[in-house]
């Protein structure tokens, strides 16, 4: 999966949450900037797992706080095959 494909998929997920595309910067914090609560973030990460065909271990959830962190995580996971469901 390319970086552009990751960006496009994430844009669709955030649009489904009602987030404006103009708010989607790499520095945008899920809570502070995008107004997501813990349930929204859980839903987002579950949708990421489904759409990208990966499993995000519980211990990794806490470190995904911004769009940039999520993108970097997805690039690593989708290119390396780590996190793929068994």
Automatic annotation (TrEMBL):
Signal peptide positions are none
Determine if Endoplasmic reticulum is one of this entry's keywords.
no
Q: Which SUPFAM superfamilies match?
A: ACP-like
Q: What processes does the entry annotate via GO biological process terms?
A: lipid A biosynthetic process
Looking at the record, the residues that make up the Carrier domain are 1-78
Q: Which InterPro entries match?
A: ACP (IPR003231), ACP-like_sf (IPR036736), PP-bd_ACP (IPR009081)
Which domain of life, per UniProt?
Bacteria
Write the record's keywords in alphabetical order, separated by commas.
Phosphopantetheine, Phosphoprotein
Q: What are this entry's molecular-function GO terms?
A: acyl binding; acyl carrier activity
Would you name any one GO CC term?
A: membrane
PROSITE patterns cross-referenced by the UniProt entry: CARRIER
Which Gene3D superfamilies does the record match to this protein?
A: ACP-like (1.10.1200.10)
PANTHER family assigned: ACYL CARRIER PROTEIN (PTHR20863), CARRIER DOMAIN-CONTAINING PROTEIN (PTHR20863:SF76)
Question: What name is this protein filed under?
Answer: Acyl carrier protein
Organism, by scientific name, is: Larkinella rosea
């Amino acid at each position: 999966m390319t970086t552009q494909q990751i960006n496009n998929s994430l844009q669709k997920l955030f649009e489904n949450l009602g987030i404006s595309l103009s708010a989607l910067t790499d520095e945008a914090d899920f809570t502070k900037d995008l107004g997501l609560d813990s349930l929204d973030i859980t839903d987002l990460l579950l949708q990421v797992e489904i759409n990208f065909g990966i499993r995000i271990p519980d211990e990794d959830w806490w470190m995904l706080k911004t769009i940039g962190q999520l993108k970097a995580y997805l690039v690593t996971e989708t290119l390396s095959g780590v996190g793929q469901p068994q």
